[in-house]
């Protein structure tokens, strides 16, 4: 069984989502199925079929998240340090063409969220950053063409 690296924050969010699905979504679906059953003939009851489909989706989500939860390898980023980029690092880079600064934290695939500045360990930019240090330049093959970045700062927080 392959371990899934993730930060303590990502692990906590995963745990919260499982708890929410089990304590809110699952009971709501069960209630919807009960109400739909009360309407009579199940073979032509669209509400019943929709509720059963929703139940299947929720149960699938729970199973998927629980699998990831049990295979999680939690890495405490606050105990890491150094000037080399590795999992958990918060990296400030500057685009060498546009001079636009960006801040990324390298996290596990499960917790990646580009809008929040969290990029997956398996993303092209993360793979280019791993092992580099402040002052190094990297080139990343992006859908819009190659992009060049310079690493300004590496932090572990």
Automatic annotation (TrEMBL):
GO: which molecular function terms?
A: DNA binding; RNA polymerase binding; translation elongation factor activity
The chain positions of domain Transcription elongation factor GreA/GreB N-terminal read: 4-74
**Segment forming the signal sequence:** none
Q: Which PROSITE patterns match?
A: GREAB_1 (PS00829)
Record keywords: DNA-binding, Elongation factor, Protein biosynthesis, Transcription, Transcription regulation
Q: Which residues form the Transcription elongation factor GreA/GreB C-terminal domain?
A: 83-156
One Pfam family name is GreA_GreB_N
Q: Which GO terms describe its biological process?
A: DNA-templated transcription elongation; regulation of DNA-templated transcription elongation
InterPro entries hit by this protein: GreA/GreB_C_sf, TF_GreA/GreB_CS, Tscrpt_elong_fac_GreA, Tscrpt_elong_fac_GreA/B, Tscrpt_elong_fac_GreA/B_C, Tscrpt_elong_fac_GreA/B_fam, Tscrpt_elong_fac_GreA/B_N, Tscrpt_elong_fac_GreA/B_N_sf
Q: According to its UniProt record, which protein family does this protein belong to?
A: Belongs to the GreA/GreB family.
Q: Which NCBIfam families match?
A: greA, PRK00226.1-2, PRK00226.1-4, PRK00226.1-5
What is this protein's function per UniProt?
Necessary for efficient RNA polymerase transcription elongation past template-encoded arresting sites. The arresting sites in DNA have the property of trapping a certain fraction of elongating RNA polymerases that pass through, resulting in locked ternary complexes. Cleavage of the nascent transcript by cleavage factors such as GreA or GreB allows the resumption of elongation from the new 3'terminus. GreA releases sequences of 2 to 3 nucleotides.
Q: Which HAMAP family match?
A: GreA_GreB (MF_00105)
Name this polypeptide is given: Transcription elongation factor GreA
**Originating organism:** Aquisalinus flavus
């Amino acid at each position: 069984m392959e371990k899934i690296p993730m930060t303590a924050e990502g692990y906590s969010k995963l745990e919260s989502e499982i708890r929410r699905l089990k304590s809110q979504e699952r009971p709501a679906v069960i209630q919807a199925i009960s109400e739909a059953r009360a309407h009579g003939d199940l073979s032509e009851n669209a509400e019943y079929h929709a509720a059963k489909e929703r139940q299947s989706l929720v149960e699938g989500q729970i199973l998927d998240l629980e699998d990831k939860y049990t295979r999680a390898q939690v890495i405490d980023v606050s105990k890491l340090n150094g000037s080399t980029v590795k999992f958990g690092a918060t990296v400030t880079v500057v685009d060498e063409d546009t001079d636009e600064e960006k801040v990324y934290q390298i996290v596990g695939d499960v917790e990646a969220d580009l809008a929040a500045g969290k990029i997956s360990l398996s993303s092209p930019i993360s793979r280019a950053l791993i092992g580099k240090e402040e002052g190094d330049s990297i080139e990343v093959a992006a859908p819009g063409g190659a992009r060049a970045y310079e690493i300004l700062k590496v932090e572990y927080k």
